[in-house]
Write a structure and sequence with these properties.
mainly beta, 11% helix, eight-stranded antiparallel beta barrel, 43% strand, disordered N terminus, single chain, 5 helices
Length: 307
């Protein structure tokens, strides 16, 4: 749903003023826009991060629903549909997913798979845009970044469930010498999945180096990722084994292929490396992942891992 007037903040006004194409007229908080200056605004940042939890309305624009970031680059629309590889794929912009043209305060996107979309462009503040789809009465909120100051930690920690699910399996590649012996020592593979009944995991005790297709999943259960009160860069993870109790970890992202699990009760540190990367491209079928609003439960705990 439309949540703002067509305002383009101090930064955007400076961009408009640099053009002699049209005269900027302020009238009842409305700015008369030219197609040329609408393009300047969309191209003023390298990356637009799509805050899916800020979406308003009950419809969807499929290519925005998939993307973590989009970029407008001289008529070509790029998207990072994966967290893995973000900052590297397509020189950081992602993959080419279509083309665009601009009208007065409007962007017309011709997506390679999802077709033609006419989206109104509104400003929330100097680095935040609203793209509004009038057909579904749905708004997407995009925050602008240059590549040099893009907050990669924000993307990983805000979308941790998607990150965990972007690999077919996570293979244990390190176990600390410090820590009490516990049953989790024997588990060498984890898999995080989503289903109709929520998020679930599987684990395997197969030996390191086993091909993914040959893994035997010995255990299964529900998992949940929690936010931690007053600690934005810490997540906690519980693995609730069917009939076998549960394990509790502090969860840290090392890089886009490595996570660290700190087993609080034993004091053991484990590192897992992603195997079998699932690349989400432009189409449906097996690459048709879409993001949903996710609000993690909050856990009131204190960080136990000594870094």
């Amino acid at each position: 749903m439309k949540i703002g007037k067509l305002l383009f903040g101090i930064l955007f006004i400076a961009l408009l003023a640099s053009s002699c194409y049209t005269e900027v007229v302020f009238e009842d908080d409305f700015i008369e826009e030219s197609p040329f200056n609408t393009a300047l605004i969309l191209e003023s940042f390298d990356l637009w991060y799509a805050d899916i939890n800020a979406t308003r309305g009950n419809g969807e624009v499929p290519f925005l629903q998939r993307a973590f970031t989009i970029s407008f680059e001289r008529g070509i629309l790029y998207a990072n549909n994966n967290i893995v590889g973000i900052g590297k794929t397509g020189n950081g912009l992602g993959i080419d997913v279509g083309s665009y043209g601009t009208l007065n305060g409007v962007v017309e996107v011709d997506h390679d798979i999802d077709g033609l979309w006419l989206l109104d462009v509104y400003a929330v503040n100097n680095n935040t845009l609203e793209l509004y789809d009038s057909r579904s009465d749905t708004s997407y909120i995009l925050k602008g970044y240059q590549q040099s100051n893009f907050d990669y930690d924000l993307v990983f920690y805000d979308n941790i469930n998607y990150f965990l699910q972007e690999y077919e399996a996570w293979e244990k590649t390190f176990t600390s010498e410090i820590g009490a012996i516990n049953e989790f020592d024997d588990e060498n593979y984890l898999q995080f999945l989503s289903g109709n009944n929520g998020a679930f995991f599987r684990s395997s005790v197969d030996g390191i180096g086993t091909p993914i297709v040959n893994l035997v999943w010995d255990y299964e259960g529900d998992y949940e990722v929690f936010d931690v009160a007053n600690d934005a860069t810490l997540k906690t993870l519980t693995l609730d084994y069917d009939f076998l109790g549960n394990d509790y970890f502090e969860l840290y992202v090392i890089d886009d292929s490595t996570i660290e699990l700190y087993h609080v009760s034993s004091g053991t540190v484990y590192e897992f490396t992603g195997r079998g990367y699932k690349q989400y491209l432009k189409s449906s079928s097996n690459t048709g992942k879409k993001r949903l609003k996710v609000k993690n439960s909050i856990m009131n705990v204190t960080r136990q891992r000594k870094m």
